[in-house]
Structures are given as C-alpha cells and as structure tokens.
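Exercise 7. Given the encoded structure of a 295-residue chain, write a plausible sequence.
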C-alpha cells in the first residue's frame, strides 16, 4: 500500500510502500529501507523491525542471526535432510573452537554413518594456487592425522570458522575430501547429488574470488539516518536487499557446477559483499531481517 508520495519534479515521484522508499523512475529497485529497532516506539506505524547497521561476518551477533535462520527453518519448514542421511565418503572434523588443526575422516564408500555436516560451495580461483592445497595420494595419511588451519587458504579457514561457530562437527570441501590425483574423483563425482542434498546446510562463498580470497570480509559502509529521538525513532537506510544482484548474478553462480550445487542444496547461507542471505524452500531471509517472499 502506498502511504505517502513526494513529487520532486513533474516526472519523478518518490513513494513509500510499507518499509521501502522507491522512485517512479525505477520502481522495481528500492532506494531506501525504513527500520525500527526491537522494543522501540516508532513514530510511524508499519515499519519493519530491522538492523540499520550490520555486524561483521562471523561475529557473535552475525552467528546468532545465522543460527536463528537455521532454527526457524528446522522448526517450521520441511527443508531438513532425512534424519538418517549419511556422511560423505570423507569429511573434515573441524574440532573445537580454539584448536589449531582439523582432521580428514574417511569411511568406506557407500557404508558411512549418519551425521550432520556443512558443505562449501566456492570458486577455485587460480588453479596453480588451489592445486597447492588438495588431498592427494601422497598426503592423505598426513591429512588424516591433522591439517594445520594456519596453512589453509583463507576461504577454507573461513569455512572452518563458520562451521565451528554454528556448532557443526563436520565440513565437506571438494578438493580436500576427494583425492585429486587418481580415479577417486570419477567415483565421488557421481555422489555429488547426495553430498549437497544431504548437507545440513551449504556455505556459499559468494564474495570470494578463489580459495585465497576468503568470504569473511568487512562490509561496505552503509548510509543511514536516524529520524526522531530516544525510543521514538526509525532509520532511513540505503537499500541493500538485492538477492538477484548479490546472489543470482554473482560470479560464483555463473559457473555450471555451482548452479548444480545450489539447486541440490536444501538450505544455503550466501556470504555476499553486502550481507548474508539465507535461502531454503521457504524463501529468502536477509541479514537486515527482511524476509523475501517465496519464489
């Protein structure tokens, strides 16, 4: 519903629709979002509860938001993999927060045990750099004994950090959980559907250009103005909820195998440059606390 309208010229109008401010020149793309904080008394009604300033990725507040998304989906959607879903042939045991290593755990193909794990979807980047950190026939036994986190490329370190902070024991990364220099890939590639569809959730390193880049990065500054004062206030902020631009059109999702990973995943946390998004069968949630309609 249109609540108010401002005419700047004879041709351009600005409209408020709910918690969004849009321009008649491009009505499909909001230019500002309106938020009120929890327990505040907004001057205007119909303004959504939201976060004008986002916390750093992997911070306690950011992880709390991610955990609430998971909890809400667990309790209200039918997106969870089956309770008896099996672990992949190999997974990384990320260990406890603060420990300096992780460990590759292997099972007999087709005879693993039930378990909860996260899967990483990422760009490999420079093939030479990525090839330097893979599981091979020459180092698999060393990886089973332990992999020093400090020696891992940043995207992998970030995935370990998020997995630990979400309280999940296992993580699946393709180049570490599949032996890269024998016929293991040929066998394991036929199990990709099971790997991604059975994952508790998928971590999408959307803003990472490769394994050395990482996806836990500082967010760009966001313009925001507080209107009112005290408990009677709301915020007018630069609109950043753009799932189409941030996720659908991201470089990561132009890769054919990544589209397959996304389609197979029941639930995905997208780490983009501006914010995190949650995608599941129930729709999309934004870190600003906006809920996008099911598509």
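Solution.
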């Amino acid at each position: 519903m249109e609540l108010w309208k401002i005419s700047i010229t004879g041709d351009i109008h600005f409209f408020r629709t709910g918690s969004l401010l849009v321009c008649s020149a491009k009505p499909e793309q909001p230019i500002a979002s309106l938020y009120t904080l929890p327990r505040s008394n907004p001057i205007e009604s119909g303004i959504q509860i939201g976060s004008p300033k986002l916390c750093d990725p992997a911070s306690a507040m950011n992880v709390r938001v991610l955990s609430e998304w998971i909890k809400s989906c667990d309790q209200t959607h039918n997106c969870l993999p089956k309770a008896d879903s099996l672990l992949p042939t190999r997974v990384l045991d990320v260990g406890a927060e603060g420990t300096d290593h992780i460990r590759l755990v292997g099972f007999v193909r087709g005879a693993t045990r039930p378990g909860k794990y996260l899967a990483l979807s990422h760009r490999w980047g420079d093939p030479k750099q990525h090839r330097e950190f893979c599981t091979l026939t020459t180092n698999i036994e060393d990886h089973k004994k332990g992999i020093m986190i400090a020696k891992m490329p940043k995207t992998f370190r970030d995935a370990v950090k998020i997995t630990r902070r979400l309280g999940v024991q296992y993580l699946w990364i393709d180049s570490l959980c599949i032996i890269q220099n024998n016929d293991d890939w040929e066998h394991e590639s036929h199990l990709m559907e099971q790997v991604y569809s059975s994952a508790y959730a998928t971590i999408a390193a959307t803003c990472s250009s490769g394994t050395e880049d990482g996806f836990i990065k500082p967010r760009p500054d966001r313009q925001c103005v507080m209107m009112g004062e005290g408990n009677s206030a709301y915020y007018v902020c630069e609109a950043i909820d753009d799932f189409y631009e941030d996720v659908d059109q991201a470089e990561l999702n132009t890769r054919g195998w990544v589209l397959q990973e996304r389609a197979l995943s029941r639930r995905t946390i997208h780490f983009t440059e501006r914010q995190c998004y949650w995608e599941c069968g129930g729709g999309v949630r934004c870190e600003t606390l906006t809920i996008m309609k099911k598509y």
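Remark. Residues 1-6 have pLDDT under 50 and may be disordered. Students should compare their own answers with the one above.
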